[in-house]
Design goal:
The protein is α+β, with helices and mostly antiparallel strands and 1068 residues long. Among the domains are: 118 residues, no CATH class; 253 residues, Methylamine Dehydrogenase, Chain H, CATH 2.130.10; 169 residues, no CATH class. Helix content is 14%, strand content 27%. The radius of gyration is 33 Å and the shape is globular. The relative contact order is 0.08. Pfam families: LisH_TPL, TPR1-like_2nd, WD40, zf_topless. InterPro entries: CTLH_C, LisH, Topless_fam, Topless_Znf, TPL_SMU1_LisH-like, TPR1-like_2nd, WD40/YVTN_repeat-like_dom_sf, WD40_repeat_dom_sf.
């Protein structure tokens, strides 16, 4: 359920409560699972309404969700049992014992025996522990106090014990607003219309000479009706009068739409039509939730799975997300939950680029975050690879087809051919970038990787200067938005350059534009040099808002990365600068930040990062603010040499910051993650084989799934990145987790003479075969738990096996190790986790499984239905999605375990929401069954591999049976059919260590045993586990004296990716 749908439930709850539909209120609370009323719960417990108590609880939790839930149900049923005994109703007590309490015997058999023994006592108070049991009323009171503590501690009830703060009659308010807007959109609005129904949109009939006043004089709502507006709904029914008129708001186009002094001009027939019901569009922007469940860290006791609002669901979990070399924040990250400190800000100067002319605009590539696009004051555009400091593309200004230019432009260029770049901007997918020039022209280039820039569109966009440019997606169509000196905002088709819209209404040159969207509402903010701000929908109605920027300044506007907070920064003619945050719902300035200079030179530029920080170039420095603070957080002069108002730009993750310098250069500032990012590429030559051709990147948006049957694109990265799509996707989705790469001491590594390490004897490594008392069947899938204390295997007979290491004197941290043998673990019930096999032969199936983030649940399949198991009790929680097609790979979404990606044997990928039991998206693009899936923990993408892919390393000793990354992504473990295991350096794909089967297997000439699967330890990069064809599982580690597998080859010794001839790139 979306956030807005959830909020609608709260509005309905408020309405029902105000209308005294008490039973319905609590029924909706239970069925939605959004709010747990402690008062209602207390009343039922106090009155002993036990059936109703459990029925209400069932909307929020089940008995075996976690230990808190189990204790809650136990205390309730125990009290019911004791009350039956106290009334000497033995028959009722026996019924409660076997119907309600027996379920707990599986968890504590001794306790159940003791409870059963109470039946034999004349008075259960003879039991020592119950000797102080008083009367029923006092016992219920004591139990209730305990239940409240358990509920408050239970993570399943987190954020469900308090209603959101709402103004009275909020639903009525929204309906009044909708009706007022429907009336304002009537072609012939009547004064004092009589509203008789809400079932259809309001429409006035033909007027009899009456005319409604302008919306400017007609408040959106008011207790006293005015001509042309609606009287309060209270005049027609039970609704309450509305509050006084709202001030004009940013959201609010929705409030008082001002009359348009100039009609909006259109370019003729357009494919972007406005919806008929503008009331459906002009709604308030979505307010971000105060508590983002995606960032709700669970305790160690959060072994819950069912949130009960739907058939079943899995708790939202997230770990501390490490940093990838190309990280992008998830749009769902709440700014209120950010854990970044000022130490995360990029303030260390790591590189200076010599541009040669004054920088006017910069933008980092949205995916390849080490690519910086720069535009200068002489019309040059340059593309820099900041990892190596290499200028990889350079274009000077030139009109591509002068004959197609307007006469004013031709005349202007004839007199003076010099131009300046006002704005450079990448498209959201990095396939295009736009350049806005100071004379009429906009150039759109397509980018295909490396230095491959192609002319795409030349648009004679405006009369005079084109002041700003941006990309937007109205109606899912990529468009270019421009504004200019001619006071017009224009929208162009990015495919063919056709003009779609022209918005007129500003009385001064339009300085900047800020396209955005809320839910499915697309709009554009525009600012002018006279300090006016307007907002436009993609229609011909005109601006929806008209108000002044702080200080009547030339202003730029920008949203935070998650799209929930709006900021602006500008400078007026007197040099006064203003940096503010806007309250969209109220249309007022929410926060003014202090610290900008009073006499700024030029317009101060600013940027946002990490949904947490603001930065501005002012007074020869870069200044930083916390979004939630007011005062200057910190600043840096970047080692000096900055102009009075430097141009600044963050990369997408905020690990790098580009700053223009006084001497026509660019300084690259970095934080620790940015430095690590640059180190990974600084020694690599930049060529087309390493650069992703951004034009074909079609990664689906995982946060908000698009239409069904989306097409999977192909991403061609550098060698190591390409291997990720094929060898990194084993049964452990962490194999492609975006982790911080461990940077070795380069001077030490390069000083070593590289030599392949051969391990042929048991004395050359540490290994352990895990004890197994169950039937030995070949191991099909293998994974370490996220905590690293257990290993889970799935055998070919659909049975799961779980080994756990215990914490003791020989193993102080309880982690998996070869030094101590683990226990083959089973619950006291003795049950096994066995997948549904239906009519399939499990030996012929392609098994798959995935673990939840807190190791409490495993999703698994062996050719038939997908099963969900509780790892604590081994119980099957549910089964779903029977074949055909059959699941061949499973992956949890990194921030919402209710979203899983399911790879199928028919080559499709289904994005499935387990909570609502619905396939949200179906992806196609492979030709054969899916063999691997991995969600990025920082990039909003899903990577897949199919049986139509193959990778063969140059030094392979035979066919590969499996491969996976180490936890730090620095090594790749590869198993071969001859029983050997290779350890490769991930960055070069060179084999640095080979482990022969004799090093870990006992010699047995009559039995050919080979490793079928490999699992990498989640925190020890040098430990891995092998699943064998004979059913055995082996843990292998290097000797303690060695500490790691072999020695990495250095670039100087000929092992670099650009000089090694035998390390062939992966084949797809």
């Amino acid at each position: 359920m979306s956030s807005l749908s959830r909020e609608l439930v709260f509005l309905i709850l408020q309405f029902l409560d105000e209308e005294k539909f008490k039973d319905t209120v609590h029924k909706l609370e239970q069925e939605s699972g959004f709010f747990f009323s402690l008062r209602y719960f207390e009343d039922m417990v106090t009155n002993g309404e036990w059936d109703e108590v459990e029925k209400y609880l069932s909307g929020f939790t089940k008995v075996d969700d976690n230990r808190y839930s189990m204790k809650i149900f136990f205390e309730i049923r125990k009290q019911k049992y004791l009350e039956a005994l106290d009334k000497q109703d033995r028959a009722k007590a026996v019924e409660i014992l076997f119907k309600d309490l027996k379920v707990f015997s599986a968890f504590n058999e001794e306790l159940f025996k003791e409870i059963t023994h109470l039946l034999t006592l004349e008075n259960f108070r003879e039991n020592e522990q119950l000797s102080k049991y008083g009367d029923t009323k006092s016992a219920r009171g004591i139990m209730l106090a305990e239940l409240k503590k358990l509920i408050e501690a239970n993570p399943l009830f987190r954020d469900k014990l308090q209603l959101p703060t709402l103004k009275n009659s909020r639903l009525r308010t929204l309906i009044n607003q909708s009706l007022n807007w429907q009336h304002q959109l009537c072609k012939n609005p009547r004064p004092n219309p009589d509203i008789k129904t809400l079932f259809v949109d309001h429409s006035c009939g033909q007027p009899n000479g009456a005319r409604a006043p302008s919306p400017v004089t007609n408040p959106l709502m008011g207790a006293v009706p005015k001509a042309g507006g609606f009287p309060p709904l209270g005049a027609h029914g039970p609704f309450q009068p509305m509050p006084a008129a709202l001030p004009t708001s940013l959201a609010g186009w929705m409030a008082n739409a001002t009359p348009v002094p100039h009609p909006a001009a259109s370019a003729g027939p357009i494919g972007l039509t406005a919806p008929n019901n503008a009331a459906a569009i002009l709604k308030r922007p979505r307010t971000p939730p105060t508590n983002n469940p995606a960032l709700d860290y669970q305790s160690a006791d959060s072994e819950h799975v069912l949130k009960r609002s739907r058939p079943f669901g899995i708790p939202d979990e997230v770990n501390n997300l490490p940093v990838n070399i190309l990280p992008v924040p998830y749009a769902s990250q709440s700014h209120g939950q950010s854990s970044y400190s000022s130490d995360n800000l990029p303030k260390t100067v790591v590189m200076t680029l010599s541009q040669g002319s004054a920088v006017k605009s910069m933008d980092f590539h949205p995916v390849q975050q080490i690519l910086l696009l720069v535009g200068t004051n002489i019309g040059d555009i340059m593309l820099w690879e900041v990892g190596s400091g290499e200028k990889i593309a350079h274009k000077t200004f030139k009109v591509w087809d002068l004959s197609r230019c307007s006469m004013p432009l031709q005349a202007s260029l004839k007199n003076d051919y010099t131009v300046s770049v006002n704005r450079v901007m990448w498209s959201p997918d990095g396939a295009l970038f736009g350049v806005a020039y100071s004379k009429h022209i906009v150039h759109i280039y397509s980018y295909h990787g490396s230095d491959d820039l192609c002319n795409h569109l030349e648009i004679d966009a405006h009369v005079g200067s084109v002041n700003d440019l941006a990309f937007s997606y109205p109606n899912k169509q990529l468009c270019i938005v421009t504004c200019g000196e001619d006071r017009i905002i224009k929208v162009w088709d990015a495919a063919n350059g056709a003009k779609l819209y022209a918005f007129e209404g500003h009385e001064a040159p339009v300085y900047s534009i800020c396209p955005h969207h809320k839910e499915n509402i697309q709009f554009i903010f525009s600012t002018a040099t006279d300090g006016k701000i307007k907002a436009w929908l993609y229609d011909n109605v005109g601006s929806r808002v008209d108000y002044n920027a702080p200080g009547q300044s030339s202003t730029t506007m920008a949203y935070s990365a998650d799209g929930t907070r709006l900021f602006s920064c500008g400078t007026n003619k007197e040099g006064e600068s203003h940096l503010v945050e806007w309250n969209e719902s109220e249309g007022a300035i929410k926060r003014t930040y202090f610290g900008l200079g009073k006499r700024s030179v030029g317009v101060v530029q600013f940027d946002t990062t990490k949904n947490r920080f603001l930065a501005a170039g002012d007074e020869f420095t870069v200044k930083f603010w916390d979004m939630d603070g007011l005062n200057l957080l910190t600043s840096t002069p970047a080692d000096g040499g900055l102009p009075p108002s430097p141009c600044i730009r963050f990369n997408k993750e905020g690990t790098l910051l580009a700053v223009s310098t006084e001497d026509n250069g660019i300084k690259i500032l970095a934080n620790s993650d940015g430095i690590r990012l640059l180190r990974t590429v600084e020694n690599r030559s930049f060529d087309a084989s390493r650069m992703a051709p951004a034009a074909i990147v079609k990664a689906p948006n995982i946060g908000t799934f698009g239409p069904n049957n989306a097409t999977i694109g192909t991403i061609i990265g550098d060698r190591a990145a390409s291997v990720a799509a094929m060898v990194g996707m084993n049964s452990d989705s962490r194999s492609l987790a975006d982790v911080k790469p461990r940077i070795a001491d380069e001077s030490v590594e390069k000083s070593r003479i590289w030599k392949l390490t051969e391990i042929n004897e048991p004395t050359q490594c540490r290994s352990l075969r895990l004890p197994d008392s169950l039937t030995a069947m070949r191991v099909s899938r293998l994974i370490y738990t996220n905590s690293g204390v257990s290993i889970l295997a799935l055998a070919s007979n659909a049975v799961h096996k779980l080994w756990k290491w215990q914490r003791n004197d020989r193993n102080l941290n309880g982690k998996a190790t070869t030094s101590v043998a683990p226990q083959l673990w089973q619950p006291s019930s003795g049950i096994l986790m066995i997948n549904d096999i239906g009519d399939t032969n499990p030996e012929d199936a392609v098994p798959c499984f995935a673990l939840s983030k807190n190791d409490s649940y495993v999703m698994s399949a062996s050719g038939a239905k997908i099963s969900l198991f509780n790892m604590m009790t081994f119980k099957t929680m549910t089964t779903f999605m029977p074949p055909p097609p059959a699941a061949t790979f499973l992956a949890f979404h990194p921030q919402d375990n209710n979203i899983i990606a399911i790879g199928m044997d028919d080559s499709s990928i289904q994005i499935y929401n387990v909570r609502v039991d619905e396939v949200k998206t179906k992806l196609k693009g492979h030709q054969k069954r899916i063999t691997g899936l991995a969600f990025s923990h920082t990039l909003n993408v899903l990577v897949s591999s199919g049986a139509d892919s193959q990778w063969v390393p140059g030094e392979a000793s035979g066919p590969i049976t499996y491969a996976t990354y180490s936890c730090d992504s620095q090594s790749i473990y590869v198993s071969f059919e001859d029983g050997s295991v290779g350890v490769l350096t991930a960055s070069t794909l060179r084999l640095r260590c080979r482990i022969s089967p004799a090093a870990y297997l006992l010699p047995n000439p009559s039995l050919r045993v080979l490793p079928l699967v490999i699992a990498a330890h989640p925190s020890d990069p040098n430990q891995f586990a092998l699943g064998l064809a004979d059913g055995g599982v082996h843990i292998i580690e290097p000797l303690e004296s060695e500490g790691k597998w072999g020695t990495s080859p250095s670039v100087e010794n000929g092992a670099g990716p650009s000089t090694t001839s035998d390390a062939e790139p992966p084949q797809r």
